[in-house]
Specification:
This protein is an alpha+beta fold and about 200 residues long. It has 4 helices and 8 strands. A hairpin with a 6-residue loop joins strand 4 and strand 5. Helix 3 packs across helix 4. It has one domain: Methylpurine-DNA glycosylase (MPG) (3-methyladenine DNA Glycosylase, Chain A, Roll). Strands 1, 2, 3, 4, 5, 6, 7 and 8 form an 8-stranded antiparallel sheet that branches. About 15% of the residues lie in helices and about 30% in strands. The relative contact order is 0.23. The protein binds a DNA duplex (13 and 13 nucleotides) through strand 3, strand 4 and helix 4.
DNA sequence: CACGGGATCGTCT
DNA sequence: GACGATCCCGTGT
């Protein structure tokens, strides 16, 4: 098993840099002894205070978004459309509510478990594609919002992996944030150009 | 492949 | 009481 990303990794100010750098890293969960893992192939940065697409826009604090204001290195998981659980990585120092939404994985381990959770065949091409889909496949649920990604006993974490070449990474506008005005066009969605496991528009911009 | 609609509920107005 | 950082299935081309 590879080394876990250290706490300092998450506490950088540079949320777009982290979103880009998380590509290729391995997201792992072990809930009730069931190990599942996938390679991050698509992620979006949400820059808290200045980003109208962010739940923490203008430093808005609510019970739900409070974990976004924690120091980086914890999960922010929320329920979307009453159905889908969205997995985010909180980044930055305490008080700075930046986060990275994990949008797609390439499944690596525990595919049988993922298939059961998704009620799909193990070799389904969309087993872990899309934020709601991957959260379900990995067993992620709002009950785990606020959980550390770095504590030794944590059931979810991210493992180190070699960096990708800049040419293999694409950037473009984020998905589903049309309500966010000017922020909707900011190119803060990052994905691996050649991955078959990317969720939406594949064109590089 | 593109589009449209239904599912479903916590959160904030 | 309205509305999502979505998904899946159906229809039509």
């Amino acid at each position: 098993m590879a080394r876990r990303l250290p706490l300092a990794y998450y506490q950088s100010d540079d949320v777009t840099g982290i979103a880009r750098d998380l590509l290729g890293k391995i997201l792992v969960t072990r809930f009730e002894g069931q190990l599942t893992a996938g390679r991050i192939v698509e992620a979006e940065a949400y820059m808290g205070p200045v980003d109208r697409a962010s739940h923490a826009w203008n430093n808005r604090r609510t019970a739900r978004t409070e974990v976004m204001f924690s120091a980086g290195g914890v999960a922010y998981i929320y329920l979307c459309y009453g159905i889908h659980h969205m997995m985010n990585v909180v980044t930055g120092p305490a008080g700075q509510p930046h986060a990275v939404l994990i949008r797609a994985l390439e499944p690596l381990e525990g595919l049988d478990i993922m298939g059961q959770r998704r009620n799909l065949a193990v070799d389904h091409p969309r087993l872990t594609v899309g934020p709601g889909a991957l959260a379900r496949a990995m067993g992620l649920h709002v009950q785990w919002s606020g959980t550390s990604l770095t504590r030794r006993q944590s059931p979810l974490w991210i493992e180190e992996a070699s960096s990708l070449s800049p040419e293999s990474i694409c950037a473009g506008p984020r998905i589903g944030v049309d309500y966010a005005g000017e922020a909707a066009s900011w190119p803060w969605r990052f994905f691996i150009r050649d991955s078959a496991w990317v969720s939406a528009r594949r064109k590089c911009t």
